[in-house]
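Researcher: Structure for this, please.
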Amino acid sequence: MNSPVQPPSVPTPPKSWMDRNWKWFVPVVSVGALIVFGAFAGGIFYFVERTLKNSEPYHVALERIRASPDVAAALGKPLHESWLVMGNYRVQNFSRYEDLTFTMAGPQGSARVYLVATANTDGWSYRVLTVNLEATHQQIDLADRKPD
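Model: Predicted structure, token format:
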């Protein structure tokens, strides 16, 4: 008896590099993209944070808060500011505006600070500078006083 004739076998083409390595390549590229995006976003956050903390209104606010006997009595000494400053800065019609919010803490408690400052040719004026005590919800006003 004769065996049936079998067609010649077609060799399978070799697998591409991606077919052989996708199991490690896809996760590595995905994690790498997340790391790059996180570093970029973190860099922007760090730059904005440094810009706000290096502004003149922020430093003047810290000086006024540390020099205030009312704040010292309510929060105690030494006072420490938080690492996170939120706010915005804009320039409009030759004037600069800065709105900031940050936290101050002392041995006896903490407080949220709100600052709104405007600068023109005469320098900075502090329209709002309040220290809101978290425990008692009392407000201590350290803004510029307008002459009557």
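Researcher: Any notable elements?
Model: The first strand starts at residue 80 and ends at 81. Residues 78 and 106 are 6 Å apart (CA to CA).
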